Amino acid sequence: MAELVRECFVGLYPLDNTSEGQKAYDLAMANPSNYVVKPQREGGGYNTYGDDIPKLLSSLSDEERRGYILMDLIRAPGFNNVLLRNGQLVASEVVSELGIYGVWVSDGDGRVAINRSGGHLLRTKASDVYEG
């Protein structure tokens, strides 16, 4: 059962100066179209995709790289739908993304104060758009 659940998740890799971080760096440099580089900060956005990944990683110091992670690029199946853009209906191939959020608060000794659902967001966007 656990293996079936794991199939729902993509890989996340550190980009720090550990051996795992160096391996992830090498993977991203060799095959950037398979990954997305994400800054470790709240609010989302500012991700880097494809051919922009080697440029970004080459420009960062080892210390700066610690502020990012590498993630396998999700390749969701597309489907035809109609989007409302600037007051106009636009037929398009789209993908949907489901984000499920949680709240976890614990102390330094591992005592959990809060562990609950924080809500969800279902977003649909054109299949040729990275952010959004």
Mean pLDDT, to the nearest integer, reads 91
Unreliable sequence segments: none
- Give the overall shape, derived from the CA principal axes: globular
How many helices? The count is 4
The secondary-structure element order is HEHEEHHEEEE
Fraction of residues in H or I helices: 10-25%
Tally of strands: 7
Approximate strand percentage: 35-45%
Query: What characterizes the major β-sheet?
Result: 4 strands, antiparallel
Q: Span between N and C termini?
A: 33 Å
Judged by helices, strands and strand pairing, the structural class is alpha+beta
Strand arrangement, major sheet: 1-4-2-3
Rg calc: 18 Å
Task: Describe this protein's structure.
The structure is a single chain. The chain contains four helices and seven strands; from the N terminus they run αβαββααββββ. The longest helix has 12 residues, at 19-30. Helices cover 22% and strands 42% of the residues. By secondary structure, it is of the alpha+beta class. The chain is globular and about 50 Å long. The mean pLDDT is 91.
Short overview:
The protein has 132 residues and is an alpha+beta fold. It has helices spanning 2-6, 19-30, 52-59, 62-65; strands at 12-14, 35-39, 48-49, 68-72, 79-85, 88-106, 112-126. The strands form 2 sheets. A 4-stranded antiparallel beta sheet has the order 1-4-2-3, with helices on one face. It has a 3-stranded antiparallel beta sheet with strand order 5-6-7, with no helix packed on it.
